[in-house]
Amino acid sequence: MDVWFYEEHKQNLRLNYRVKRVLAHKKTDYQELVVVETENYGRTLVLDGAVQLTVRDEFIYHEMIAHVPLFTHPDPQKVLVIGGGDGGTVRETLKHKEVNEVHLVEIDPEVVAAAREYFPETSAGLSDKRVHVHYADGIRFVAEQEGAFDVIIVDSSDPVGPAEGLFGKQFYADVARALKPDGLFVAQTESPWANQDILPRIYAGIRATFPIARLYLATVPTYPGWLWSFTLGSKKHDPLTVDPARIPDLGCRYYTPELHRAAFTLPRFVGDLLEKPADPFA
Ligand code: AG3
Predict the structure, then answer these.
(1) CA 245 to ligand 1 center in whole angstroms
(2) Residue list, ligand 1 pocket, CB within 6 Å
(3) What pTM does this model have?
(4) Is 120 helix (H, G, I), strand (E, B) or coil?
(5) Ligand 1 centre distance from Cα of residue 58 (Å)
(6) 270: CA distance to ligand 1 center in Å?
(7) Would strands 78-83 and 149-155 be described as parallel, antiparallel, or unpaired?
(8) What local confidence, expressed as pLDDT, does residue 147 receive?
(9) What does the pLDDT read at residue 162?
């Protein structure tokens, strides 16, 4: 069989994957959902043409989006995850013993259903008794919270379609209000290589909202540009002052105590990008 799937990384650039099997393909109320088994990366979840996770490399993204904020906060008990219906971020969050409540707010129930059916190793944590799954719009959910969470993790798709509002100034203000007085949040903030047009605006929005704003990097082979960014916005705790000697070994495959600090050391072109004057998303 010679079947290929591609993601369009740029108008003139596509990444092709040889497909062993198409496991699911449907239009949900929110997006087009595809699950394929690829030769190189194993099972792959694709939403509106954008790869969300592959079994082979999802650990990189999920470890980095969860452990950097959760080890920056000294006592993260109550955590909110926006998006992330595949469960990968929740799985990593549950590795922190202080965490006693995780709320996952996913707009599309079909994403959770597909994760439970096709990605058991990613989604298993969703059945943990500390986890509460809400099928709701993350923007509205956050707007209704006040001083409720230690850590908020925004595990969204790209800022087009259902996730667009999750990158806006109003949303960041609502996130700040939903956090406790020493709370902090992190969002996946696209690629500093492939998304240079929008990253300065996303970063500007977070920096305008939080006293501490820090961008960090990880290499995700299946996302456009490979080089991927996350931005942490914090009211009090600074990720750069975390003592690596106090970070326990969780048996991660990408994240390490030393990498916690190193991930914030930016190549010059990335630093320059963040200094570019930009209007935050409305
Ligand atoms: N969130 C998706 C990151 C964006 C990927 N973009 C792309 N492929 N164009 C990941 C969800 C995993 N929990």
Answers:
(1) 31
(2) 50-53, 84, 86, 88-89, 155, 157-158, 188, 223-224
(3) 0.98
(4) helix
(5) 10
(6) 20
(7) parallel
(8) 98
(9) 77
Residues of the chain with CATH 2.30.140.10: 3-54
CATH no. for 58-274: 3.40.50.150
Which of these CATH numbers, 2.30.140.10, 3.40.1790.10, 3.90.650.10, 3.40.50.720, describes 3-54?
2.30.140.10
Q: What residue owns the CA closest to ligand 1's atom 1?
A: 157
Nearest CA to ligand 1 atom 9: 50
Q: What is the mean pLDDT of residues 209-227?
A: 98
Residue 62 CA, closest ligand 1 atom number: 13
Over the stretch 229-248, which tens digit does the pLDDT of each residue have? 999 999 999 999 999 999 99
pLDDT in tens, 120-163: 999 999 999 999 999 999 999 999 999 999 999 999 999 987 78
How far, in Å, from the CA of 87 to the mean position of ligand 1? 13
Where are the CATH 3.40.50.150 domain residues in the chain? Answer: 58-274
Q: Closest ligand 1 atom to the C-alpha of 84?
A: 13
Which pLDDT does position 282 carry in this prediction? Answer: 84
3-class DSSP assignment, residue 23: strand
* Among protein residues, the one whose CA lies closest to atom 12 of ligand 1: 52
Q: Classify 219 as helix, strand or coil.
A: strand
57, 108, 150, 155: which is the annotated catalytic residue? 155
User: Residue 155 catalytic?
Assistant: yes
